[in-house]
Amino acid sequence: MNMGYRELSFNLPPDYQEGDLRDAIAKELGIGTFSWQIAHKSLDARRKSDIHWLARVSVLSEEITGGEPPASSELVIPSHARKEKAVVVGSGPAGFFAALVLQKAGFRTTLIERGAEVQKRAEGIKTFEQTGCFDPVSNYAFGEGGAGTFSDGKLTSRSKHISKEKRFIIESYIRAGAPQEIRYLAHPHLGSDNLKIIVANLRREFLDLGGCVLFETLLEDIRIKERRVTEAVTSAGEIETDYLVIAPGHSAYETYRMLIGRGVGFRAKPFALGSRVEHLQEMINLAQWGREKLPGVKAAEYRLTSRGDGTLPVYTFCMCPGGVVVPATAYAHTNIVNGMSRYRRDGIFANAACVAGVKPEDLAGREVSALEILDLLEALEEKFFCFSERFAAPFCTIADFIEGKESGAIRASSYPLELKTAPLWKLLPPLVSEALRAGLRDFSRKIRGFETGSIMGLESKTSSPVQVVRDTCGRCSGFENLYVVGEGSGWAGGIISSGADGIRAAMSIAGTVP
């Protein structure tokens, strides 16, 4: 008999069991023998009295008549033996997946990473948080897996037309140890505890394919001849290459400056500035669910937007339920914060970036170049460092920020280094502070108790402040074999879209070589 196919939708209680869903399928279709899998699942919490999962399920059975499963969208990598060499800089999602695809396509691929391998990186971060002594190769910004390794590992993406690339990334993560649920959850995440294992397993896969990885190796310069990069100049020596893919992430300012100095076109672009807000997770649960705990769901999330003061948009970003605020600086002379959470999201605090979208010309008061906006942003990050005396996070209560008053209130926090009370609104650019003040008032009306939280540090890495000029094939304009990809390119952001950007560059390269 032929297998028939059906798709069904169910409303399920938050703490449903697998057997409950199987029984619901059998009852709905009136059949006893079938296979099934969840195609999509999201939490509907619009009514606190009726919070439930919305699940779409794919069912195959000989007892079903008709129907065909949707065709899968597979990434087909053109693979054959090649003599060409490829060098990829940066092991975040964009760099790693570019390197993996190039190696699968038959190139002799070298992946270089300025930071340490993930285990050494984790140990360096632990020491940093215990002592406050910054390690340039083992920190939250640089190292194996990029900045995303020590974040929440969110896999959501607003990018369209990347279904094949997204599937390749998701399946690669699952093969490396990620939970199967990332295939179907509406808001999937990996958690930093899982990511440390996943990125190491992915590295082993790349090495087993014949790739080469060089950690603690900084790209210092590039050699160019007749519009082609011929060598990558690194701290470990010069590496000849036929193709160079650079995935610098959002923090490698000296790499941006080197590329601009070598004639690679960059322009300033809109980005966001603000701080981190933090609350007790139970307070967020109560506001969102009407109860402090919800069996079957890890922790409540929120996504807030506001027009702020009417000129700048204000929004929350990278919300980390049950997470911690971390000292995410890339350099010893700057001070910024970010958020991180583990897979179980079971910490007592919740945090999120609270930022205002800004245009470079509004921030500077005039039109600025890519180099000028990098200088301006770095000066702001240095300002926070100088105020807090190393890596203490300047903070105040949200209520004090709204009112513009200094109460000196001390709060418990997940931040591993000390907090320093501060008039945070005076440290941020005035147009950002005014927009955040209006946005925070708005958020306090939308989530009960929001104003009781804390706001701290400088959040300056929601996206790159610069964007590389690329041609329709993704190459840097004016170059035949140079690609800048991922978040640092200014064309992508987040794990999925950055990874997809790297994959597309690799596929473009693979298609240009006979």
Short description:
It is built from 13 helices and 22 strands. The chain is of the alpha+beta class and 514 residues long. It has 3 domains: 4-61, Alpha-Beta Plaits, CATH 3.30.70.2700; 85-266 and 467-512, FAD/NAD(P)-binding domain (3-Layer(bba) Sandwich), CATH 3.50.50.60; 270-368 and 387-459, no CATH class.
Detailed description of the structure:
With 514 residues, the chain is α+β, with helices and mostly antiparallel strands. The protein folds into three domains: 58 residues, Alpha-Beta Plaits (2-Layer Sandwich); 228 residues, FAD/NAD(P)-binding domain (3-Layer(bba) Sandwich); 172 residues, no CATH class. The chain is built from 13 helices and 22 strands. A seven-stranded mixed β-sheet has the order 13-14-17-12-20-18-19. A five-stranded parallel β-sheet has the order 6-5-4-10-22, covered by helices on one side. It has a three-stranded antiparallel β-sheet with strand order 1-3-2, with helices on one face. Strand 4, helix 2 and strand 5 form a beta-alpha-beta unit. Helix 2 packs parallel to helix 13.
- Per DSSP, the total helix count is 13
Overall body shape: globular
Residue fraction in strands: 15-25%
Category by helix and strand content: alpha+beta
Fraction of helical residues: 25-40%
Task: Draw up the topology in text.
Layout: E1 4-12, H1 18-29, E2 35-44, E3 52-61, E4 85-89, H2 93-104, E5 108-112, H3 118-131, H4 163-175, H5 192-208, E6 212-214, E7 219-225, E8 228-234, E9 237-240, E10 243-246, H6 253-261, E11 266-268, E12 271-280, H7 281-289, E13 305-306, E14 314-320, E15 324-327, E16 337-340, E17 349-358, H8 360-364, H9 370-388, E18 393-397, H10 398-403, E19 419-421, H11 424-427, H12 430-446, E20 454-459, E21 466-468, E22 482-484, H13 495-512
Parallel strand pairs: 4-5, 4-10, 5-6, 10-22, 18-19
Antiparallel strand pairs: 1-3, 2-3, 7-8, 8-9, 11-21, 12-17, 12-20, 13-14, 14-17, 15-16, 18-20
Helix pairs in contact: 2-13
